[in-house]
Structure formats: C-alpha cells, structure tokens
Write a structure and sequence with these properties.
By secondary structure, the protein is α/β, with parallel strands linked by helices. It is built from 17 helices and 19 strands. Helix 5 (about 160-170) runs parallel beside helix 7 (about 195-205). The longest helix is centred in the first third of the chain and has 19 residues, at about 80-100.
C-alpha cells in the first residue's frame, strides 16, 4: 500500500457521497428474516467440521447509558435503574451458555469486544461475572494470544477500576472523548473533563494495557478549526496508541436524540472538510500512521504493523488483526459472522428475554453467502485493507479464470476514478494511489453487486 496520504479537497468534495463502510459484505441491508435460528445452528456445526476450525471471537452489546449524548445513533437504553442491567446480565449469561454448547471445546476465544451503549455501565463485579461466564463457555486463549477490548465512557469509571478491568483479562481500552471543548460538550450533552481522561489514560498505562485508543468526532455543533486544533493538541500530548476520528452524521429525521441539537449550532458543510484536513495534517505530523477509514495508529502499534506486513483485516468493529475468527454476537442487536453466514439478534429486550426463556437463540435475521458473495467480499476486503488487488491471487483463491472478464463492469466504473488519480488499473492488478486512500469506500462500491446508488441509508464516504 502507498504510504502517502493526499488530501485533495476538490476530489474529496466530488466523491463524498453516501456509501457502506464494508465491515461486512454483503452489508446489513441484505440480511433477511428467512435466516433463522436453525440456519445459525447449522452454520455453527459446519464451522466445527472443517479441517482446521477457526478460533472464536465475540462481540457483546451492553445497551445501557446513564445519560443521553445527543449525537448518538447507537442502540441504547437510557436508565438509572441498575436492576435492568442486572436482569440483562442474567439473560446474557443464558445466551452465552446456549451459544457455548454449539462450538467444540477445543476451540479457543482469542478476541472479545464489549460495546454499547456503555459497557462500563455494568459494575466491575458484574463485568467479572460476565468474563467468568464467557471463559467457562468458550475457553479463553492464553493471555499472550488474546485481544480483549472494552469501550469506556470516562464519566463512568475511576483509575482504580481501570486496574481491576486489567485483572479481569481486558488488554485494550477505547476511551470515548469526542471533543475537549466545553462548549461543544455542552451542546451534545457529553460533559467530561480533560483531567478525567488524562487520569484514566495514565491508569491504563500503569496497568500495562497493550493498547489504549481514543475516539474523536468531528463535525459536531459549535466545533471550529481552532477549537478542534486545541483538542488535537491535548490528544497528541496523551499519545494514545490508536486514534479513531469519526465524521458526525447529523440525521435528526432518523435519530430522535439528534433533534435536541440546535440547528444554529451546526457547523457549515465546508467545516467538516477543514477539520478532516486538520486531523490528517496534525496526526501524521505527530507520527501517526493512517490505517484507513478514520483510523490512525502509532508505528509500533499492532494495527500499523499489520498494515505494513500485509496482514490487516476488517470485521464489524473495523480494522483488526484477529478478524479471521468465527464471530459470535451476544446481546440485543449484536451481529455475528460464523462460517459462511452473518446473523443479527433481536432489537428489543422483551423479545430477547422471551427467546432465551424459551431456550431459543435470539437470532432475528441473517444471511448465507454465495460463491459470488465470497469472491466479492475478498476483493473488497483486500482493497480496503491493503490498497491493492492482485488479480491472479483472487483467481487462484476462488477458481475463476479471468478476473478482468468477471469484473468487467466494475473495472469500467473505476475509469473515472482512475482518470482523477485515485488508483491505477493495469492488466493484472489494481493499486490505490495517495489521493484515493480517503476514498476507499468509493472504490469498494464498484465491486458491490447489491448497491443501489439511489439509496441514502449510509453515512457519507468521506
């Protein structure tokens, strides 16, 4: 992959349109209700029966939050009633028990991610209980082989709790900072001090976490280039191993919470591009490597090394070094990937409880990939992770005779992007150029057999 990253504002404006993030292919709109619990169980059985079963991964959705962040588009439950979390943990443990029985005891869990909502809404005692249930059901790999991560709301934990979480087996933390500016924080109802974050990051360092990540959001109300530059100063001084910089998608017609943001506080459209330019300049000048899709990492971080040596992968959590696992989704709305299938759990806690009380898995919908899906998924993943596609390697892996013929329409659709200097396409390979690295999603869309250009359900690609 080309190491350089070129921000060309005219090209960014030209290609900044709605498109999938390709954490899966096919993407979630293709999932359907005809895929049910029996299909999932069959997929688990097939995954055990292959010559070399994959290690296991799990995503656990903890939906609870104490307060509402106005920008949030996640599936969450705002409550101060801690009994609801205790009840949910009971149902979650039942799902873990049912799922654990589907996978051979010889397989080990190497990756775990707790997201939300706010995973740290659970007390440390509850998190310890959850980890014990997971270990019993899925058999954790040795500590040196694990990537166990947790999303942390800095308002919900103390430095002492950070040390306890490390003792439970978590070795990666992601702190949701978003912005340090007090006016921006008030505008989105996410008030937390710089001192809180600094103390927690230091505690994570002292507890010897393998990786500390910070999440930022640009395009929030009242943000200016100067104010966000000040936030970047503070983040760079903290020197987290990874920084995720997400573009805020303001869609109040779809997300009720966003209607609480005042229209007059929203920055003009051009501000986002100014902020993106600033982020790229500041973080790369500070020594961070651009991984892709909003993510930066220090050169010694595992993600940066994986990008360098060609082993970078993608899953539902984004870029990863452990994506080639069977991923088990646990909790409401959680998405899994087992064998050649995707599945998603029900969205409502009442449905979730009812299914589990009946001894059933809470699978709501899913999808089983065809040969063409697997082929296109490989092309899209290779493109987005490595910035290049070797046609011969794809032909050999999927038993097709002629990449150029099979993807003639896709290659034709890339001609305008090639003319704009985003990539080069030769007779036997495709290579992304520095100006195209910000438009990876646009390039991948050329290979998507299901994409409807008229749809606007996706976030903008840049």
């Amino acid at each position: 992959m080309q190491d350089e990253l070129l921000f060309d504002r005219a090209l960014v404006e030209k290609y900044d349109r709605p498109g999938p993030r390709y954490t899966s292919y096919p993407t979630a709109p293709q999932f359907h209700a005809a895929f049910a619990e029996d299909d999932y169980r069959a997929a688990a059985a097939r995954s055990n029966a292959v010559a070399r079963p994959k290690p296991l991964s799990a995503y656990i959705h903890i939906p609870f939050c104490e307060s509402l962040c106005y920008y949030c588009a996640c599936n969450k439950i705002i409550t101060h009633n801690r009994e609801r979390a205790a009840e949910y943990l009971g149902w979650l443990k039942r799902e873990i028990e049912i799922q654990g029985a589907l996978f051979d005891d010889t397989r080990r869990m190497t990756q775990l991610h707790l997201g939300g909502g706010t995973p740290t809404y659970l007390s440390n005692d509850q998190l310890a209980e959850l980890m014990a249930a997971l270990d019993e059901a899925f058999h954790f790999a040795a500590p040196s082989e694990r990537e166990f991560s947790l999303e942390v709301d800095p308002r919900t934990v103390t430095p002492e709790q950070i040390h306890e979480l490390r003792a439970f087996g978590f070795n990666r933390l992601s702190f949701g900072v978003q912005d340090f500016d007090p006016d921006v924080q008030k505008a989105v109802s996410r008030v937390q001090s710089e001192e809180q974050v600094v103390g927690l990051v230091q505690a994570a360092r002292d507890a010897a976490y393998d990786s500390v990540s910070v999440d930022l959001i640009y395009g929030l109300p009242l943000q200016t280039v100067a104010s966000f530059d000040a936030t970047l100063d503070k983040i760079i001084a903290l020197k987290p191993d990874r920084i995720a910089t997400y573009s805020y998608a303001h869609l109040p017609s779809l997300f009720k919470a966003q209607r609480l943001i005042r229209d007059e506080d929203m920055p003009p459209p051009e501000r986002k591009l100014e902020l993106l330019d600033l982020i790229i300049q500041r973080l790369m000048a500070a020594g961070y490597v651009y991984i892709g899709m909003d993510h930066f990492a220090l050169p010694e971080d595992e993600l940066a090394r994986a990008r360098e040596n060609g082993t970078l992968q993608r899953n539902f959590q984004g870029y990863s070094t452990h994506a080639d696992c069977d991923l088990i989704g646990l909790g409401i709305t959680a998405i899994g990937k087992v064998g050649d299938t995707y599945s998603q759990n029900v969205k409502e806690t009442a449905q979730y409880q009812h299914r589990l009380e009946s001894g059933r898995l809470p699978v709501m919908r899913g999808y089983r990939l065809t040969d063409d899906d697997r082929l296109r998924r490989d092309v899209i993943s290779t493109l987005m992770c490595h910035g290049e596609v070797d046609f011969a390697a794809i032909e050999a892996a999927h038993g097709i005779d002629d990449f150029n013929g099979y993807f003639a329409d896709a290659l034709d659709s890339l001609e305008a992007m090639q003319a704009d200097g985003l990539l080069t396409v030769s007779e036997r390979r495709l290579d992304v150029l520095p100006a195209g690295r910000l438009m990876m999603r646009n390039l991948a869309m050329a290979f998507d057999a299901y994409l409807n250009p008229a749809e606007s359900r996706y976030s903008r690609t840049v």
